[in-house]
UniProtKB/TrEMBL annotation:
Start-end of Polar residues biased regions: 98-108
Source species of the chain: Canna indica (Indian-shot)
Gene Ontology CC entries for this record: nucleus
One Pfam family linked to the record: Elf4
Protein name: Protein EARLY FLOWERING 4 domain-containing protein
Residue ranges of domain Protein EARLY FLOWERING in the record: 5-84
The keyword Nucleus is annotated on this UniProt entry: yes
Gene Ontology biological process terms in this record: entrainment of circadian clock; positive regulation of circadian rhythm; rhythmic process
Amino acid sequence: MERRENKFLHSLQKSFVQVQSILDQNRLLINEINQNHELKIPENVGRNVSLIRELNNNIRRVADLYANLSLSFNKSMEGSEEGNSSGKLGLKRVRPIDNSNTLHAPQI
């Protein structure tokens, strides 16, 4: 089970690094698009079309990476469930707070 968790954590870290890299690239693209728009130089404004396409593709890539993370997480949880003979996920149960000893204001 520990090996599976390590594999999942490595995959998670790798995906987040990829996402951050794409988001950094998007920041640069947006800055260039804004500069081109402000300068209103015809060739630069025309270049914005390809920059916006690249930006849209990057957004799709980020969405795909998050979708893959979600699938990996679900598979990891299913694997944990199968690997645990008790049928539990191996997570600790959080106990509710016991308020029985708490003083309550009288109801009027």
